[in-house]
Amino acid sequence: MNELTEVEIERLELIKQQLEVKLQVKIIVYVVVYCSFFMVLFCIISVILKIGNILSLTL
Asked: Which parts pass through the membrane (predicted)?
């Protein structure tokens, strides 16, 4: 079993930190995308309901 040098250990730690940061950023992006998607969906549904109410009042 070959020994890891100090430089290699530091490099691996750095890579690990970068991967953790990328994962956190991905999670944040997914949360933002899902939230905005549901907001848009909610807006569309409320607009459809308003149009339905207007149509039912005019008929």
From this structure: 27-49
